[in-house]
Design a protein that fits this description.
The chain is α+β, with helices and mostly antiparallel strands. It contains 3 helices and 4 strands; from the N terminus they run αβαββαβ. Strands 2-3-1-4 form a 4-stranded antiparallel β-sheet. A hairpin with a 4-residue loop joins strand 2 and strand 3. The radius of gyration is 21 Å and the shape is elongated.
Length: 107
């Protein structure tokens, strides 16, 4: 058997394990600051990055691997965090008005 056939599945696993995603992690208002700090330390220890810390809400934005999310949930018990993908949110329409069909009801 060729060595490349043996290595391809392994390479795929390494690429999958190191996949990073951008998330928002928020906590209930009664969560102690020490729990949030432990979660951020776990992210940094696994090669992730805290990209933004929030002051009005208890939470932060980070780039993390999927594995560290389980650790965050475990460290935060009983104050379970809400973890969601960090996406762009706009209040404006995505395409100019002239390019869309405009419906005018009959008069």
């Amino acid at each position: 058997m060729k060595p490349t056939r043996l290595l391809l599945p392994f390479v795929g696993l390494v690429a999958f394990a190191s996949a990073q995603r951008q998330v928002l992690v928020t906590y209930p208002h009664d969560t102690p600051l020490s729990i949030i700090e432990r979660s951020k330390a776990a992210i940094l220890a696994t090669g992730g990055k805290v990209t933004k810390e929030y002051s009005l809400i208890k939470g932060f934005a980070a780039t993390v691997s999927a594995e560290v999310l389980d650790t965050i949930y475990t460290l935060s018990s009983p104050h379970k965090p809400n973890v969601e993908d960090d996406n762009k949110v706009t209040t404006q329409q995505q395409e100019p008005l002239a390019q869309r069909e405009i419906f005018f009801p009959p008069v």
